[in-house]
Amino acid sequence: MKFYLPAYKKSDPKNYILALKESRSGFSEKEPQRMAKNSGGTYIEGKIHIKVLGHDISVIHPQGFVKFSENTDLEPHFILQLIIINYLARSGGEPLTYEFLPYRDFPGGNAFYAAFYQSAIQPLAQNFGRNPERLQALALNLGGEVMEAGSSTQILFRFLPRVLLKYIIWPGDEEISAQANVLFDSSAGDYLHTEDLAGAGAYLTELLVEQAGKIYS
């Protein structure tokens, strides 16, 4: 399997080391079969298997080590590891609603919205506003589903089995500035804290922008 997510022998958590240790500790205390069921994954021989942005990921219980299932020597970026561990530990099994809300509508989202806009939304408009078809092409490598949406480009990403992100771009030209937004399934707060939702959006946008730079520069 070709990885479209960055893969590392060891992703340095830097100043997130304490947060990662705390998340792993909370994860270790939870019953793995229940976490797997509630999160939309499966539990086999000490590992919870879930799909993350179109990639098969394994999380070892109780240690909380996150690996690519196709190559157990490689792991995703530490930010993605942190989000995955927190997702599993928090999952309660609530169903998806397919009703989408802006980030600021989640608890505390208003306080963090400016930062979220700069890291997750603004780069979409800046990098794909003139060429939304590039975003569509990149999205397919990450399990994205292009949706029919009239004048806008809309792509549904299954970031985690029960955390959906909808990316929207309204194209611009010489006279009209492009606009963008990132929406979340209304149930997303039952699976990730608001800060982790921001991390998910920022991670995915940064990944798409980096991949566009490599291919289209």
Task: Please explain how this structure is put together.
The protein is 39% helix and 24% strand. The protein is built from 6 helices and 11 strands. Helix 2 (32-39) packs across helix 3 and helix 4 (109-128) runs parallel beside helix 6 (194-216).
Which properties best describe this structure?
alpha+beta; 11 strands; 217 residues; globular; 6 helices
In short:
This protein has 217 residues and is of the alpha+beta class. The protein has 6 helices and 11 strands. The model has no long low-confidence stretch (mean pLDDT 95).
SSE map:
Blueprint: E1 7-8, H1 17-28, H2 32-39, E2 42-44, E3 47-52, E4 55-60, E5 65-68, E6 75-76, H3 78-90, E7 100-102, H4 109-128, H5 132-140, E8 145-147, E9 153-160, E10 163-170, E11 179-185, H6 194-216
Antiparallel strand pairs: 1-6, 2-3, 3-4, 4-5, 7-11, 8-9, 9-10, 10-11
Helix pairs in contact: 1-3, 2-3, 3-6, 4-6
